[in-house]
Recover the amino acids of this structure.
């Protein structure tokens, strides 16, 4: 049975310098990202993502690991103001400390070698692993991933997650049947991934 997550309302946006707008249609720079508009509309309406003060959304901008967990925490109700973490590169005076600590306590991030690399852009591989953990998917099977043309380029630590998410249609490969997991995720792509994951969670994924 899929777990039910509580909805979370937070004032802080994906960036400290952003403000909310009503719809993706209001953004000045959304013409080439029509495919992400439905997802962005929903997440903006719920305060999960926001636009910038200049009226842009910057859909093609890369998303940092700290920004991604902030978005995920809001979308899945994982924020915990009492959570703590001891990554050597995440400190209490930084805006993302509580977000990273919440993600760590929720169990969907682990970091590596005692660090989290909060400002590093997040890859499709990394996002897949986090999302598979959030959705509590079975990552022991790799048969779906084996059908991808770049299967041999998927690292061991990500292959089960990629396979599960592609199988459940939460993430998709490209038209050339590759996953391109080392590619950094953009703001538009992150919004679509989050919304697809929520649709799966609530049994509404088409």
């Amino acid at each position: 049975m899929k777990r039910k997550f509580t909805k979370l309302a937070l004032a802080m946006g994906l960036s400290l310098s952003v403000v909310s707008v009503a719809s993706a249609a209001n953004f000045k720079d959304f013409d080439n990202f029509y495919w992400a508009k439905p997802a962005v509309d929903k997440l903006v309406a719920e305060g999960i993502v926001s636009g910038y003060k200049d009226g842009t959304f910057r859909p093609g901008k890369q998303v940092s690991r700290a920004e991604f967990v902030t978005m995920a925490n809001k979308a899945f109700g994982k924020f915990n103001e009492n959570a703590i973490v001891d990554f050597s590169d995440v400190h209490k005076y930084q805006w993302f400390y509580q977000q990273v600590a919440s993600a760590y306590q929720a169990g969907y991030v682990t970091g590596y070698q005692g660090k989290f690399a909060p400002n590093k852009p997040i890859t499709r591989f990394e996002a897949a692993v986090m999302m598979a953990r959030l959705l509590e998917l079975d990552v022991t099977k790799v048969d779906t991933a084996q059908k991808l043309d770049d299967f041999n380029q998927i690292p061991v630590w990500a292959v089960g997650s990629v396979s599960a998410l592609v199988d459940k249609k939460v993430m998709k490969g490209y038209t050339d049947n590759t996953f391109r997991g080392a590619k950094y995720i953009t703001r538009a792509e992150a919004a679509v991934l989050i919304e697809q994951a929520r649709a799966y969670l609530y049994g509404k994924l088409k």
